[in-house]
Amino acid sequence: MSDDYTEVSSESWLSRIGSSIKGIFFGFALFGISFVLLGWNEYRSVVTANSLGEAQNVVISVDNKEVSQANQGKLVHVTGKAVPGDAVADSTFGISTNVLQLKRIVEMYQWKEKKEEKEEKELGGSTKKTTTYKYSKEWSGEIQDSAQFKNTDARQKNRNPNAMPYQSNVVKVQEATVGAFELNQELIGQINDFQPLAMTSETLASVPEETAQNLKVNDGGYYRGSDPGNPAIGDLRIKFEIAPSCDVSILAQQTANGFSPWQAKAGDQLQVLYTGILTSAEIIKKQMEANAMLTWILRFVGFIMMFIGLNMMVAPFAVLADVLPFMGNIVGAGTSIVCGLIAFALSLMTIALVWILVRPIIAIPLLLLGFAAIIGVIFLVVSYSKKKTAPAPAY
């Protein structure tokens, strides 16, 4: 069942010009923030890379069978099987098991609102926006507030429960060890190789009476409702996953009989755990790869922020040209290309300026490339202007 609702609105040309002028200020802010993000990201990346390089030079691999007092305060590499020291419990569902982590996943069958927008330009510079709200039944781990549905009829007909009776959560074991070493809660939380914990008629018998009402075993989990094959609004499906005892590899500072974050002189702290048996070099390589990936993601985010900010700053020109929609499209495409080239050039130059302090050999070519891109944009704009103002040939 679906109750679509469509809303049509329009905005005049003058109103659009006013909105675009207001957007200039937000564009300036976004433009400025992008420089901060790009600069901070490069500084962060270099600090992390230097810290990992420092770690590679000082780390020592130790046997997990004995905690040597001579290694106190040093960066150590330890491998072995992580073993829980006690049971992990979910008292609501009567589960108790000797694992490192127990995850509860709860979903409710609910009405969900989805919004689709379509905007069309009209002659004279105004726009017509068509917004369609669609309603469908779906499983969701979060409560969908039907009181906020746009369609007033849907608010009455497609009502969801106000709250979920049970929440998804993760419970970590209080004590765990790798040989003679104790794991802290942060390291236990990094053990994320979860696998399903199947519910059966035997486990259902252990569920407290107040929870077990209308609960049944279904698809390896529990189902609360009448018919799993024909779910009703408000029905629940509950599944469990565990992180059992497993081999792990740790890079951290040895503190007492356990671990704590190791502070590099370069600036970063290091306390990481990977599942499986890895050498210290393999762990540092993975950390380097993660740092490189985050660096590129934030570079892209910074570039997009700068591009959007520049576009907002020049948006009034495209809106002015929208009196004839095709002219507005041409101007909009042209300004987007120019803004993209400028954003690319300024992003390179920002990265290079930060790198001058730490990586001058790489920074200089980047600066030259950025200047070349800026000159290219100026050349394109000047060439286009000359063509527009050149006199028509005489016949």
Mean pLDDT: 88
Number of helices: 8
Q: What are the segments in which pLDDT stays under 50 over at least 5 consecutive residues?
A: none
Shape: flat
User: Sheet bearing the most strands, described?
Assistant: 8 strands, antiparallel
What Rg is obtained from the alpha carbons, in whole angstroms?
30 Å
What does this structure look like?
By secondary structure, the protein is an alpha+beta fold. 43% of the residues lie in helices and 28% in strands. It contains eight helices and 19 strands. Strands 1, 6, 7, 8, 11, 12, 13 and 14 form an eight-stranded antiparallel β-sheet that branches. Strands 2, 3, 9, 10, 15, 16 and 19 form a seven-stranded mixed β-sheet that branches. Helix 1 packs antiparallel against helix 6 (280-321). The radius of gyration is 30 Å and the shape is flat. The model has no long low-confidence stretch (mean pLDDT 88).
Outline:
This protein has 395 residues and is α+β, with helices and mostly antiparallel strands. The protein is built from eight helices and 19 strands. The radius of gyration is 30 Å and the shape is flat.
